[in-house]
TrEMBL record:
Residue intervals of the WIYLD domain: 11-64
Protein name: WIYLD domain-containing protein
Superkingdom as given in the UniProt entry: Eukaryota
Lineage of source species: Eukaryota, Viridiplantae, Streptophyta, Embryophyta, Tracheophyta
InterPro entries assigned: WIYLD_dom_sf, WIYLD_domain
PANTHER family on file: NUCLEOLAR HISTONE METHYLTRANSFERASE-RELATED PROTEIN
């Protein structure tokens, strides 16, 4: 099981990495929480794998869904 300190460091690193790609600092923790709900705290290796590809895809899918919702209003 991953310690809270390690999880916090993972969160901070992910937020900073995604911020460099111009993803909002509020959106990233929300998406990480959703991914960790699915993968559990042992899911960090999957999230960090391939430079956060899983996280980026989740964010883009959410943004695409939000854009489609606005079009359908």
């Amino acid at each position: 099981m991953q310690s809270k300190i390690a999880a916090s460091m993972g969160m901070d690193t992910a937020v900073e990495s995604m911020h460099q790609l111009r993803f909002g600092k509020q959106l990233v923790p929300e998406m990480l929480k959703e991914l960790l709900d699915v993968y559990g705290t042992s899911g960090w290796p999957y999230i960090e794998e391939a430079s956060y590809k899983l996280l980026i895809e989740a964010i883009l899918n959410k943004q695409q869904g939000s854009a489609e919702d606005k079009v359908n209003i």
